[in-house]
Design a protein that fits this description.
Layout: E1 6-10, H1 14-25, E2 29-34, E3 45-49, H2 50-58, H3 62-67, E4 70-72, E5 74-78, E6 84-89, E7 101-105, H4 106-120, E8 123-126, E9 130-133, E10 138-141, E11 146-148, E12 151-154, H5 161-165, E13 173-185, E14 194-198, E15 201-208, E16 213-221, H6 230-241, H7 247-253, E17 261-270, E18 276-277, E19 280-282, E20 288-289, H8 297-314, H9 320-349, H10 356-367
Helix pairs in contact: 1-4, 1-8, 2-8, 8-9, 9-10
Amino acid sequence: MTAVNTVLVVGAGLAGTGTAILLASRGVAVDLVEVNAGISAVGSGITLQGNALRVLRDLGVWEAVRAESSCFDSVGLRAPDGTLLAEIPDARTGGPDLPAALGMPRPALARTLIERARDAGVKLHFGRSVTELGEDGAVTFSDGSTGRYDLVVGADGIRSTVRRLIGVEAGIRATGMGIWRVFGPRPASVTRTELCYGGPCYIAGYCPTGEDSLYAYLVEDAQNRGVLSAGERLETMRELASAYHGPWDEIRAALDDPERLHYTWFETHVLPPPWHRGRVVLIGDAAHSCPPTLAQGGAQALEDATVLAELLTERPVPDEQLWTAFTDRRYARAKAVVDASNQLGQWLLDRERGDVPGLMHRIAELVSPPA
C-alpha cells in the first residue's frame, strides 16, 4: 500500500521527471504538467556528478545517458596561457562502478527522461500550467480543466508557481556572479572538465558533452547583459575568452552563433522545513538552488526525487511523520551543498584563498552515501 494513489507533478525538469518516473514505476497514477510546449531542441550542457548518475541508474536511463554523454574521472586546472597546472582525480560519489562525472547536452537529457516517463505510464501534458491550487490537492489548470490529487509535487524551478500559489516566500538572492555559457563543437584536446582561474573572469571552464560537443563558460561579476544586442553578446564573450588559450583558442574560434549563448546570474536559496503545505510539497530548485560551482544542483534535485518517491511508496499515509522523515533526509544535506557552493563563489569574489580541496572533499564524503 502506498501513501498516495494519484499525484500531480508540476515541472518537467530533473526533479519532476525523476519523481514521476519513480512513482509511476511503482503503480502510482501520475500526471506531469509542463508550462513549455515541448522539449527545447537548443540549450547548453549540464555536468552531473556520480551521485546524480546513481539516481539515473535507478530511473532506468543510465545506458541511454551514457550513450549521449562524455564521462570522465578527473578535473584539469590550467593557467590563462593554456599551461596545464594539475590533473586532480575526481571522487566517484556514485560508487566505483560509475564514472566520477559526465557532461551531456541538456535537451538530450530532458528527452531521455521524458521518454522514460512516458514508458513508465506517466501522463504528460505540455503547454499547461497550474493557475489555482489548494492545500487539499484541488487544482485548476490554464486550459480551464480541474482535478484533485492525493499529492501535488511542485518541481517547477526557482521561480516556482506552485510555491507562490501556496504562499511560501523563497528569499532568493543573487550571489554577485554572472555566467556566460555557450554550446559548440568539441576540440579533440577537451576530454574532461577543465578550469582556469585568473584573467578577466573568475572562472573560465569547459566540459565535454559528447563525442563532438562541449559547453564552455565564463564567470564574471553579475552585470545587466540583457541590454546587449545578439551581436554585442557574441562580441563580449569572444573578447572575454580572448584572455584564455590552450583549448580555449579552438573554442573561441567556433564562437560564431549568438543563439548558442546564454547569460544568467548565479542565484541561491534554501527553504527552511517543512517543504510541504497540506497535500503540496516543493522539491528541486523550488526548494533549494545553488550556483554551479560544485556542479551539484542537478544531483540534489534527483536526490529529492528518489527520497520522496521512496517514502511515498513505502509508507501507508502522507502524514507528518512522512514529511518529517523527508526533510530529515533532505534539508541538511541540500543546505550543506548550497552553502558550500556559495562559499566557493564567495572566496572568488573576495579574492580569498580558501580551503577549496578540503571543502570539496567534505562535500564528496557527504553525498557519496545514497540520500
